[in-house]
Each structure stands twice: as structure tokens, then as C-alpha cells.
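Quick one, C-alpha cells below. Sequence please?
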């Protein structure tokens, strides 16, 4: 039987941009090797409510204040290194219970705030950069080439897209500057623009110039794939059917959301019409597209921004509130809105859990899952949305399989730079580096 390589899949049949999952019937011997370790970042804006996220803080409320670098003593976190099993999950982390053995909670990671700009401006924009403060010329932000692009320089050369940038900010009101709404940068002052429209991302992943823009893309791919059916075993035919069913579901969801946009546009509303789009549905649709891109080898590196920083334009958190709400606005009134903020934090965690489930259901060439072969990191640029603190950030690392130790709570010594985690992840992805930004060393407890 003729062996078909993954590159053949991506090249496609008859000129179509055919992206396919791994199929055993068509695999070459080389595909039985351990799959490439991918990297994905799930960014949550505005920080979290500490008492709901961090172990041991459920009975403690941090008072409202300015940045002021609120001391860790307020949060009661251990200032020393400790590593213990992740036995119990906090209120906000409970949606991850099913994957507790495939995640690690990392606390004690800090960033340095560079004076001279708004607190929120550095949260997202410098999150994956962590450049040493006051060392980057020509900018008020400690912003350099971000981790995703540095890793993609190493593991993204053979993929159609070195990186893909996803954003779930559906608003078009340009409320804030680009520094509040992006975490991926080619370099200082050079934004890697994210895609916010699911249909635009779908077309970017599956369309080519040769395809008539009015044709249904999935129909075209299905037509080309039928020529491969005689080479497939029963299990692979089932997998292929499941894969295209998921694409069909994505298309139907996009059509539904676009229909909602059109209907909302006919009504006079106080808030922008995008505020009334179901938030979870929108995030999960963009997440499905990210998973497909990683699954099919269209990219090995992605960033996924759940929402923008300090954007007072509201969103509809369906099933949480009866009208659109501003996450940023609520964060500045934590004392009176603590229960609502805890709901938002858990809502974001539920979306992260949804993506963990999707990735853990996809089988790779060696029998492991897509999640096992992806460093999937949940994090925020603030440790607390009310106090604006840059220390003790909420970080969860999921996946990594045999290459990463999971199921643990790693509390780093006080003052440990977030860049230490970025250095560790870069090394796990094969980069031969000993330093990243303001790092002081790696996190050895993550290495298997």
C-alpha cells in the first residue's frame, strides 16, 4: 500500500487546501514517532478574584486599592518554594476536575510593572514578552518579540501558519489602543494581528485563491477526500466522518451567529449589537477552530485571547446575568460584586475546560491525545483585577504528556519572574536557550 505523508495531506488533492487529522491507514513509519509538542496560550483579562482561584484564600478579601504592588501577605501564599499534589481544586478551578491529572497549578509568578503607562496597557501586551523593564528603546512598554513567535521560529517552520492569533473580542468600537487587546507581537511596535471573526478564521484555515469564494469549503474538501476512502480502514473512515461532522457543526454555528448579528443590527440598542451575542458560544466556536488548526498541523503555535483589557463595552455572559455586563467595570467594584465576578471567573474556566476536553478527545499517531502533545497555558497579566497587582499571577499549565509533570501545585519562591515559566516552555519545545527576557532560571519541577 502506498504511504501518504502528513505533508501530502496538507498539500491536498486537486488544488484544495485539504487539512486532515492523522489517519493510521495512510501513515508512514515516521509518523509513529512522538508527535511534535505544540504550544497554546489561553489568556484571561482583568485577573481573577483571588479568594476563588488561589488555594487557602477563600475566606480572605483583598481590599480595594491602586497598583501599589500589594504584598503577598494579603493573599497568604507561602513565600517559599513548595511542590505538592493538586488534591483539591478551588471554587474557580472546579470545572477542571476531570483533567486534574493533566494540569499543574503554578503560583508565585510575578511580573515587573514599568512605570509610565496605564496598568492595563502592559497586562496583555507584555504578558508573553516579559522583557526586562527600561531596556527596550523607543517604547513605554517592556515589550519585545513574544514567546509564541520565538517558539514558532523553532517548531513552526514546516507548518502552513507559523502562528495563529485568535481573539474573542467581537466589538468593533476601538474602545482602547492595540496594547489593551493583543498578546502576540512580532517585535517592539510590530503587532501580530489577531482574527476575531470566526468565518474569517475558517476561510484562512481552509480556503485558497483557487477556490470560488461562494462555494462551500467543506463540500470541496469532502469531494477530494472521497478519492482516499479506498485506502482507509474502518477506524479511519469513522475518524474522517467524525472530523467532517465537526467542521459541519462549526459552519452551522457560524451561520447561526451571523444570523443573530443581522437580526440585532435591525434593532436600536443602547449597547453595540455584539454585546448581545452569546459569549460562551462565541468563545467555544473560536476555540473549536483553534483545536482543528492544531489537530491538522496547520500550525503548532496559537494564542487565544478570551477578551480585552479595560474594555468597558459590555458582553453578554449568557446564563449568568440578564443583560450585558462589563468585566472591567465589575472588577473595580469587587466588594459589592464579588459573587458576580466569581461567576465570570468560573465562566472563563469552563471555556478552558471545554477546550481541554476537545483536545483530550483527539487521538494522535502514537495513541496519545492532542492535549498530551500541547502545552496549553491558562493565565492572566494581573494577579487580582481589583488591586491591579502584578505579583502572584494565576497560571495553569495543562497537557505536555510524558514530557511534563502534571497533577501538582507548584508554589514558586516570592519574586520569581513569569519569564522563568516561558523559558521552561521554550526549552520543552526544543529551543536551545538558557535565558528568556528577565528570567532567572527554569522551573525544574515541570520537566518529566
Amino acid at each position: 500500500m502506498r504511504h501518504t505523508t502528513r505533508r501530502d495531506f496538507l498539500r491536498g488533492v486537486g488544488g484544495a487546501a485539504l487539512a486532515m487529522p492523522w489517519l493510521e491507514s495512510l501513515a508512514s513509519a515516521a509518523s509513529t514517532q512522538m508527535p511534535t509538542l505544540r504550544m497554546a496560550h489561553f489568556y484571561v483579562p482583568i485577573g481573577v478574584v483571588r479568594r476563588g482561584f488561589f488555594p487557602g484564600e477563600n475566606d480572605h478579601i483583598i481590599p480595594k486599592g491602586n497598583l501599589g504592588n500589594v504584598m503577598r501577605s494579603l493573599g497568604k501564599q507561602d513565600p517559599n518554594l513548595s511542590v505538592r499534589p493538586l488534591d483539591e481544586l478551588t471554587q474557580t478551578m472546579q470545572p477542571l476536575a476531570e483533567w486534574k491529572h493533566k494540569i499543574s497549578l503554578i503560583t508565585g509568578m510575578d511580573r515587573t510593572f514599568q512605570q509610565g503607562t496605564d496598568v492595563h496597557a502592559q497586562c496583555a501586551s507584555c504578558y508573553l514578552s516579559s522583557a526586562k523593564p527600561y531596556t527596550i528603546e523607543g517604547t513605554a512598554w517592556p515589550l519585545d518579540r513574544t514567546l509564541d513567535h520565538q517558539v514558532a521560529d523553532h517548531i513552526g517552520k514546516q507548518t502552513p501558519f507559523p502562528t495563529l492569533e485568535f481573539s474573542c473580542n467581537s466589538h468593533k468600537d476601538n474602545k482602547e489602543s492595540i496594547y489593551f487587546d493583543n498578546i502576540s507581537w512580532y517585535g517592539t511596535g510590530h503587532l501580530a494581528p489577531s482574527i476575531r471573526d470566526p468565518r474569517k478564521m475558517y476561510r484562512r484555515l481552509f480556503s485558497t485563491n483557487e477556490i470560488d469564494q461562494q462555494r462551500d469549503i467543506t463540500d470541496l474538501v469532502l469531494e477530494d477526500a472521497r478519492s482516499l476512502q479506498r485506502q482507509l480502514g474502518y477506524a479511519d473512515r469513522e475518524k474522517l466522518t467524525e472530523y467532517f461532522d465537526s467542521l459541519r457543526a462549526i459552519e452551522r454555528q457560524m451561520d447561526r451567529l451571523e444570523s443573530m448579528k443581522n437580526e440585532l443590527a435591525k434593532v436600536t440598542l443602547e449597547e453595540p449589537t455584539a454585546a448581545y451575542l452569546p459569549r460562551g458560544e462565541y468563545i467555544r466556536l473560536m476555540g473549536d477552530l483553534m483545536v482543528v488548526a492544531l489537530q491538522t498541523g496547520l500550525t503548532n503555535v496559537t494564542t487565544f485571547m478570551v477578551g480585552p483589557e479595560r474594555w468597558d463595552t459590555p458582553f453578554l455572559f449568557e446564563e449568568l446575568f440578564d443583560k450585558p455586563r462589563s468585566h472591567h467595570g465589575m472588577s473595580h467594584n469587587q466588594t459589592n460584586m464579588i459573587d458576580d465576578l466569581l461567576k465570570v471567573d468560573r465562566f472563563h474556566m469552563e471555556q478552558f475546560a471545554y477546550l481541554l476536553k476537545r483536545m483530550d478527545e483527539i487521538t494522535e499517531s502514537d495513541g496519545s491525545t492532542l492535549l498530551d502533545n500541547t502545552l496549553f497555558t491558562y493565565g492572566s497579566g494581573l494577579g487580582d483585577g481589583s488591586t491591579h497587582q502584578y505579583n502572584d499571577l494565576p497560571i495553569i499549565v495543562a497537557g505536555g504528556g510524558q514530557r511534563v509533570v502534571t497533577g501538582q501545585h507548584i508554589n514558586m519562591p516570592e519574586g520569581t519572574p513569569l519569564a522563568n515559566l516561558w523559558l521552561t516552555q521554550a526549552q520543552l519545545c526544543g529551543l536551545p536557550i538558557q535565558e528568556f527576557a528577565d528570567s532567572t532560571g527554569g522551573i525544574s519541577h515541570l520537566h518529566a
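The CA atoms of residues 293 and 408 lie 29 Å apart. Strands lie at 38-43, 82-85, 103-110, 164-167, 185-187, 190-191, 301-305, 374-379, 395-399, 408-417.
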